[in-house]
Amino acid sequence: MTIRFRSPLAHWPAVVPVVAAVVLALTWGRSLSVGLVVVVSCCLAGAVLAAVHHAEVIAHRVGEPFGSLVLAVAVTVIEVALIVTLMADGGEKSSSLARDTVFAAVMITCNGIVGLSLLVGALRRRVAVFNAEGTGAALASVATLAGLSLVLPTFTTSTPGPRFSPPQLVFAATAALILYGLFVATQTVRHRDYFLPVTAEGEVIDGDDHAHPPSTRVALVSLGLLGVALVSVVGLAKGVSPTIESGVAAAGLPASVVGVVIAMLVLLPETIAALRAARRDRVQTSLNLGLGSAMASIGLTIPAVAVASVWLEGPLVLGLGATHMVLLALTVAVGTLTVIPGRATVLQGGLHLSLLAAYIELAVTP
């Protein structure tokens, strides 16, 4: 009889979210010393890796594109809670936090996640192959929502500044919810095959040929642990946000950099999951994660902050400045030219990453 011993490290995906949640409970609302910031940061990194693991377990069970949708929506719902919490705590000085964080999420997903995924996929197979119909529909949805929610407020005249009037804000929030619901229905029901990975010959890959899907019980446990991990990620990110704000202020950087850092922290699980999918020649899954996260970020955040603006103090600034509108226009134009052929090389990945680099550079030195 052979006795097999499992390493304690084999249970880390179950242990790390619980540890991170305990650390979050112990540090919530406290001023963190340098030592505690280090501990919280380590727990934050561990919770990100655990979230990616559990998201992949769920994705393997439910299949694409449901798997990427679960992670995108879960992360965004908790991101919205973080934004509203920070706006409630920050008063008038946080009036542009929602805009800064949402736009940062759009640039990171549409240029960072998409660019890295195309780069990894093209380096592995010379050409990254994906479904142009589904990816094009996702990009068009992101462009429409970003234009309605982040560009139009700059040009309206009913209220001073880059803001919506109350009726305009209601319209933008309602349109965001309807368009996001329509996108999800298209992605998961009516045209699910448009969002499935494809082979180099263009054949749709439905399912994973290399491993049996986990049981329903394992998937449900992973779903619960994914929720714990994501709550911990966002809660711990909020815990270190005063340190981030202090560091940004000490470095003499614009306050909008805080939104960029928060978006990067919150989107880490999707970024890692997208890169791992691209390494497995599932570039379409990576694009689903990137563009789906951008859609969820706009489609859920704008309605949430619209409702929260009823009791939050200060104005709600949503309109982008001229520099950011140029970057958004370039992102949509380059993304469209990338998507049309359904195939991308290293060059397209580099183009998207250069736009992300330009965004970060201009955020630091506007």
Which SSEs are present, and which pair or pack?
Blueprint: H1 12-27, H2 34-62, H3 66-90, H4 97-125, E1 128-129, H5 132-151, H6 166-190, H7 216-250, H8 256-266, H9 268-279, H10 283-308, H11 322-339, E2 343-344, H12 346-364
Antiparallel strand pairs: 1-2
Helix pairs in contact: 1-2, 1-7, 2-3, 2-7, 2-9, 3-7, 3-10, 4-5, 4-8, 4-9, 4-10, 4-11, 4-12, 5-6, 5-10, 5-11, 6-10, 7-8, 9-10, 11-12
Provide a descriptive summary of the structure in words:
With 366 residues, the chain is mainly alpha-helical. The chain has one domain: Up-down Bundle (A middle domain of Talin 1), CATH 1.20.1420. The protein has helices spanning 12-27, 34-62, 66-90, 97-125, 132-151, 166-190, 216-250, 256-266, 268-279, 283-308, 322-339, 346-364; strands at 128-129, 343-344. It has a two-stranded antiparallel ribbon with strand order 1-2. Helix 3 (66-90) runs parallel beside helix 10, helix 4 (97-125) packs across helix 8 (256-266) and helix 9 runs antiparallel to helix 10 (283-308). It is globular.
